[in-house]
Structure formats: C-alpha cells, structure tokens
Amino acid sequence: MKGKPLVSIVSAGLSKFGKIEGLYARELFAEAAKEAYERCPNLNPKKDIQALFVGHMGESYEHQGHTGATAADWAGLLHIPAIRTEGACASSGAALRAGIYAVLSGLCDVVMVGGVEKMTHRTTPEVTEFLAMASDYPFEQWHGITFPGLFALMATAHMHKYGTTEKQMAMVAVKNHYHGSLNPKAHMQKEVTLETALSSRVIAWPLKLYDCSLITDGASCLILTKPELAKKYTDTPVHIVGSGQASDTIGMYEREEFTSLKAAKLAAKKAYEMANVKPEDIDVAEVHDCFTIAEIIAYEDLGFCKPGEGGHLAEKGETKLGGRIPINTSGGLKAKGHPVGATGTAQAYEIYLQLTEQAEKRQVKDAEIGLTHNVGGSGATAAVHIYRRE
Ligand SMILES: CC(C)(COP(=O)(O)OP(=O)(O)OC[C@H]1O[C@@H](n2cnc3c(N)ncnc32)[C@H](O)[C@@H]1OP(=O)(O)O)[C@@H](O)C(=O)NCCC(=O)NCCS
CA-CA distance, 175 to 316, in Å (whole number)? Predict the structure, then answer.
C-alpha cells in the first residue's frame, strides 16, 4: 500500500510573509496559530493540543530566547509542554519531526508544530552574521565566509562538474517569482524576467541578487494528530506517510562532494522507503531553494532527475506550474521568502493547501502525493517529509 499514515495534519496556518514592521516574532506566530484554529472549528486548542514544538533559529534578532514558552503563551496554549527545536534553516522541519515522535510515541494525541523568525528589522550585515553562526566557526565563519559564499562554492563545483549555467540558475528564480506572484502571502509577488535576474548585482559569484532567498519575517504552524482521530477534526486530513531526517559534517570542507547534500539524500531515502513511494510518484514538492543552485541540487538529491541534470530540468520548465513536477508553487524561499525558523512548516503548509485543493491560482490539478525538503545551513541538517491526501 502506498503510504501508511504516520500522523495526520488536520489544520495549518501561515502568517503573511514579508517585511512586517511593528510586530514581534511572537505576534507573527499568534497570527499563524489563529489561522490554524479558524480552519479547524472542531478543535478546541486549549483543551486538545497537548504539546508545542516550535522551530526558531536565532535569539540574536530580537534578543529573545525561550521560544517554546513564548510561542505557546502567544498561541493561547499556556501550561502545555512547549519546546524549541533548532536546526538552522531546518529548525521547523525538525519541529515537524519532533511532533511526529510525540504522536507516534503515544504520549500525545494532538500537537502543534511550527516555526517563526523575525529578521527584517536588522541590517543585512547583522542578518548575514547571525545566519553564518550555523556554519563551522573555526574554519568557515572565522575566515569570513557566509552562506552566499558557501553556496557559491557549490554552484561553481556544479558548473565545473556538470556544465550547469548561470542561465539555468536564473530560470529557477524566474519560475519561483512567477509562482510567488500567484501567492497572496508571498514576500515578493512580482514576476521577474530572465534578463533582470541574470543582470542583477553579484552577491557571491556566480550567485547574483536573484539567486538568493529573501530576508523575511514570518511564522507557520500545523496541527497533527493520530490518523485514527483525524476525522474528528476535519473531513480532509492530509497524512504524513514518510519522514526522514539526517545530518552531515558541520564544515563543508569535510564533505565527500560539493555538488550534492548527503544529509538530504539520506533523509529522502528514509522518507521514500517509509512512504513506499518513488520520486516519480510525487505530484508537487516544496524544496529548500535558499539559493537557486540549492534547488537544482535538490532536484538531483530527491531523484527527480539524474545527478547533473537539475539545470536542464529548470531550463525545460518541467518544475513550473503546469510542468511534469511543479516545484515551489508557493514561490519558494526565493519569492515567498525565508524566515529561517518558519520555513520547514511553511513548506508543509503549501503542500497541505495543495493536497486539500486550497491553493487557488497555483493549484496543481489532482495532486495526491507531496514532498517537502528542508535544509539547515550548508546541509548539515536535512528533513524530508512525504504527504498523501485522504
Ligand atoms: C541577497 C541579499 C544580500 C540582498 O540584501 P541587500 O543587498 O541588503 O539588499 P536590500 O535589502 O538593501 O534590498 C535592495 C533591493 O533588493 C531587493 N532584494 C533584496 N534581497 C533580494 C533577493 N534576495 N532577491 C530579489 N530582490 C531582493 C529589495 O527588495 C530591494 O528592492 P527595492 O530597492 O526595490 O526596495 C540578502 O537578501 C541576503 O542575504 N539573502 C540571503 C539570505 C540567506 O542567506 N538566507 C539563509 C540561506 S542558508
């Protein structure tokens, strides 16, 4: 049987993504929680939700740690166990995984998982430094390398090994900005031309402005329950049928190769095996396009094409809405935005919308099986989840 449910998603919420002035992270999380509650009138949050797992990458942005309790307080969930998970940009992919552990262990019937980050009130150099803390201190940060720099190294390695081009990377940006233009919650809702993307200023060659994800504020959450309880809350649950998480060396310099992320491949292998599905069964996916090269590598690591063919997949339009396998219909981290702690469960939110036919202008017709791929840092953490509609 394809995909025995591990847990079921019965509701989901997402704050508006963007440069949100005047709100704290906790208020963004409350906004996401409110949407999840409103979507699920049969749920009594205070009575039913038994634990909260919330991804949050950095306390430096707001000088605020202790995110589990803070988020629970502002989501109206006082007094339950509330735990922060941290795995850099995969912090809420890890929260989702932790929520699955909690339900599968039998300790909890219903949990909330989510994530949050408030970034845009800090300057770009500050944000760059806070983000870089998720790389290796002695051999990467200390020498001044940042995430655009690390992913630029992967891009040049990919170009050298496979002939991947700057144009192919730019086409990922053009696609994701097109998808973002269809998403009212996306940070950037404007289309860009290939010429604009290709001629944008260099950030870390070969990566240009339009190859980089956005610095964004936002929050996301999901309500999970046991599959046998799902119908109590909704007629249209989405089942999580595969879950994989893996890690790799913190320093990129110790990796076996620079053109692939081993943690992502290992996480995907586990998730596919658990779900009993193959890459060709996936109808829609949200992948971690923190830089356009990362999306190309994701296509290859997830088995959507052979190693080295990711650039061609983007160039041929196969991953655009209407293509063979639409990827990042939300706009991805490139256009929807990348509030790092919120990204993993925001990806799951998009898949939840797709599999319950609520994705409006960006709906993938007859989507039955979805996948999310959430990467932390330069790939030292990765979480892959597979979802099936009822
Ligand atoms: C690419 C980056 C350095 C640009 O920052 P910046 O040079 O300070 O740019 P600014 O914030 O001053 O914005 C200048 C303009 O570029 C736009 N812009 C900023 N980042 C953009 C991006 N990534 N893509 C497209 N446009 C972008 C802004 O909207 C603004 O447009 P406007 O002039 O029309 O208002 C920054 O977005 C960044 O660091 N992104 C990567 C974040 C990251 O590493 N995340 C973790 C990944 S592991």
Answer: 11
Of 56, 187, 239, 338, which one is the catalytic site residue? 338
Q: 380 in a domain, yes or no?
A: yes
Q: Output the domain CATH number for residue 56.
A: 3.40.47.10
The pTM (predicted TM-score) of the whole model is 0.98
Q: Spell 233-243 as b/e; 16+ CB within 10 A means b.
A: bbeebbbbbbb
The residue range of the domain holding 288 is 7-123+214-389
Which strand ranges, in their side-by-side order, compose the sheet holding 110-117? 82-85, 52-55, 110-117, 218-225, 7-14, 238-247, 381-389, 369-376, 284-286
CA 380 / ligand 1 centre spacing (Å):
24
Tokens standing for residue 244? 């994989």
Pick the catalytic residue from 40, 89, 212, 305. Answer: 89
- pLDDT tens-digit series, residues 159-204: 999 999 999 999 999 999 999 999 999 999 999 999 999 999 999 9
Each residue of 106-145: b (16+ CB within 10 Å) or e?
A: eebbbbbbbbbbbbbbbeeeebeebbbebbbeeebeeeeb
If one residue of 207, 214, 291 were mutated to test the ligand 1 pocket, choosing by the most ligand atoms within 8 A of its CB, it would be 214
Give the integer Cα–Cα distance in Å for 175 and 319. 8
